[in-house]
Amino acid sequence: MSPEILKAAFADNLNFAVGRPAEIATPEDWYQAIAFSVRDRIMHRWVRQFEKRNAPDVRQVAYLSAEFLPGPHLGNSLLNLGITDNARKALAGQDLDLYIGLEEEPGLGNGGLGRLAACYLDSLATLCYPATGYGIRYEFGIFDQSIKDGWQVEVTDKWLLPGNIWEIKRPNFAQVVKIGGHTETYTDEHGAFRVRWIPDRVVVGVPYDTPIVGYLSDSCVLLRLWSAEAAQSFDFADFNRGDYYGAVEEKVFSENISKVLYPNDEQLEGKRLRLEQQYFFVACSIKDMIRLCLRRGSTLERFHEMFCVQLNDTHPAIAVAELMRQLVDKYAMPWERAWDITRRTFSYTNHTLMPEALEKWPLPLFGSVLPRHLEIIYEINRRFLDEVRTRFPGDEGKIARLSIIDESGEKYVRMANLAMVGSHTVNGVAALHSELVKTQLFPDFHDLDPKRFQNVTNGVTPRRFLGLSNPGLTRLIDGRIGDSWLSNLDRLRELEAFAGDVGFQQDWMRVKLENKTRLARIIRDRTGVVVDPSSLFDIQVKRIHEYKRQHLNVLHIITLYQRIKHDPRLQITPRTFLFGGKAAPGYFMAKLIIKLINSVAETVNQDPAVRDLIKVVFLPDYNVKHAQNIYPAADLSEQISTAGKEASGTGNMKLSLNGALTIGTLDGANVEIREEVGAENFFLFGLTCEQAARLRAGGYNPGDYCHGDPELRGVIELIDSGLFSHGDRDLFRPITAHLLERDDYLLMADYRPYVNCQQEVDHAYRDRHHWTRMSILNVARMGKFSSDRAVREYADNIWKLKPFAPEA
Ligand code: CBF
């Protein structure tokens, strides 16, 4: 698409869609005009695909996810359409990057899980698979984080305030969803015994569609997000009686369902509204699939041939019971046939081993929201446990563990068990995690049917996380190996040949320094802290969680601080420690860790004795947009979770893809990253998963580690002395007391190996050529971690899905 055509499109949209003459147009107006022009080109592709998608033999994947975290659309869509350069030319001197930077991102997810879903949509589109992502159009996404006096303050997200150009409302495909009430039996016209659900209330789900364009592929997939509206938003009867508030109450009540994203990452929020949200989007999505199936002239007997449905964690697991309800209650299908179709339709991805994230709903709550589903779940469970009994007669322990209903005390519905029973395949998200899913999480299900278990190691899209966010490195790589690697990441291997080339290394260092200089400017503008771009950028960006161990990183910083204070002539590699991440608003320890980071930053950054050898920064409001500026600038990637706790991680992949070296434990996908990049290019430390288990089993006493290590003891004492808290000796006591008394995440045991490993990092960074060689090799060997590879594995091994043939 030539610059002239784009120029005309921008001018047209500025006039006709935005309604502003160029002479008075603001940057926001220009952003809109460009975005409309780009959307037109995406819609054009979407419309052209209509026939293909609706052909009777096309099977598609429905990716059900309560979270999607796509990041801003404009820059990525320009890249995927291959028109960024021409758009720049069309703007003749205006700053395209400024306009791109104005876009609010849809923060419709908490972290890794939602971002993974967005990477998979990018790859599904790029690889031309027929696919729809179904989710919730939260009016308020993840909160914006600001820092006041070192503490996290949550500010309501308002992503929809400036309007959202990328979505199209489709009221004609709205769905009605029942909630609450009771069930009753009746006999139908054929004399058959049937059940119907009489709800307390109904809400309407209205879909908003965002087409996601693939990279240079002519293909699009759909992101369909449901928004809740009242069935009848204005009750005239109430209004006429003079009850104005009553008249709008129903509207407010219904709309609450899609109002706000629960801001908990890997923590169960057992609230009624959360269950309603889950059911709401699942019910709308299943009905939408049934509609599409019938519209294409198929019977529901073939539902599973037209749709495979991926459950992104247990949040959408109620879909199993909902499809059964539709097939049996509404379409009068015999139970056995409906169950066969259901089992062939669903597959389930587990994303966590954290017990607090495994969803279970108190039975009374569940029954009051979804009375019919509870009956269906009981019936699924009865039939399932009958089978188990014939295989394992008399093993009541096994039966209790496999049951969808937890009856060990107060009764619960276990959503993971429902997902397991209702799916043909379950997968973990990294090799180690998939093993632990078999051996720790679902050993009884594994005994029952080992063939059902698979691994699909996560992947990330190289388009957004290298092509878009790191144009300098992209150009450098293009210059050596051509540009097709963005759609075939294995081609990065060809860079290995240049890893020792001094000229190439110098260019590589130059690009890294430019990226660090840019980030240093952002840090200064957003926090006031001045950092030196030539220092080692040591980066830990992710949700704040005790198992991710941001506080282990802090213990290392305080160790260095202590060493510098004890020895004023000490020489260490100058470092900038950068943290970013949000804490769940109700997670006290996580919020205290943020306060600790900021308090240590305040003390260390201002102490002249430190001679600027270390700087500590907490960059507020970590999100996709900010991440894109951070990854390219990283020298060191902190992946230091307690082994066996991080399912996979994906930030680890994005940082390595941008040339950062990893310091990490053998946890999640770190294991595979290390295998790929080579042990010699990875800083490994800490307990393995088995060692951690043995240590706990043998009676772990964290205090012993502290007492046996004077340096560690000094660090803990320094925190307790009030030095970082203006003399308040109690402020951080919950952290230090937990470390000394319980230390669930084994920081004390891993402290010394971590600090020693950091010393190796310090030495390695002094040899810049060797470091750069390692950095090049990290990038060269990241091919495996493309989301294209992951999506192909899902398509081939789980969904049995074929891509569309490329356009002639
Ligand atoms: O699989 C994607 C990511 O999901 C999580 O973020 C999650 O929410 N369960 C995990 O914590 C990550 O390890 C994982 O990479």
Write a brief caption for the model:
It catalyses: [(1->4)-alpha-D-glucosyl](n) + phosphate = [(1->4)-alpha-D-glucosyl](n-1) + alpha-D-glucose 1-phosphate. It contains 34 helices and 23 strands.
Structural notes for this entry:
By secondary structure, the chain is an alpha/beta fold. The chain folds into 2 domains: 49-71 and 106-458 and 792-799, 3-Layer(aba) Sandwich (Rossmann fold); 462-785, Glycogen Phosphorylase B (Rossmann fold, 3-Layer(aba) Sandwich). It is 48% helix and 14% strand. The protein contains 34 helices and 23 strands. The strands form 5 sheets. Strands 1, 2, 5, 6, 9, 10, 11, 12, 16 and 17 form a 10-stranded mixed β-sheet that branches. A 6-stranded parallel β-sheet has the order 20-19-18-21-22-23, with helices on both faces. α7 packs across α34, α23 (550-566) packs across α30 and α23 (550-566) packs across α32. The longest helix is centred in the middle third of the chain and has 26 residues, at 502-527. It is globular. The mean pLDDT is 96. Bound molecules: ligand CBF. The site of ligand CBF has 16 residues, from α7.
